[in-house]
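Cross-check.
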Amino acid sequence: MEKIIDIESSVEAAHWVVVLEENQIPHVIRQLNDPIYGGALSLGKPYAQLLADAQYKTQILSLRKEIKN
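Predicted model, tokenized:
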């Protein structure tokens, strides 16, 4: 698996889970902040990364473009 996109919030992460499951795309969302400190140490950094096999990268980026429009 490789990093496809950065995710900025837990809300965005939850949305991606729904979208990717609807499209039957295997994925992992790797949270980057440390919940012990309430994310205070990760200001200015992404909340998480969406990881998937390279074969799904184009499809995920296309879905991202649709979501942003």
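DSSP finds two helices and three strands in the chain. The first strand starts at residue 2 and ends at 7. Passed to J.P. for a second look.
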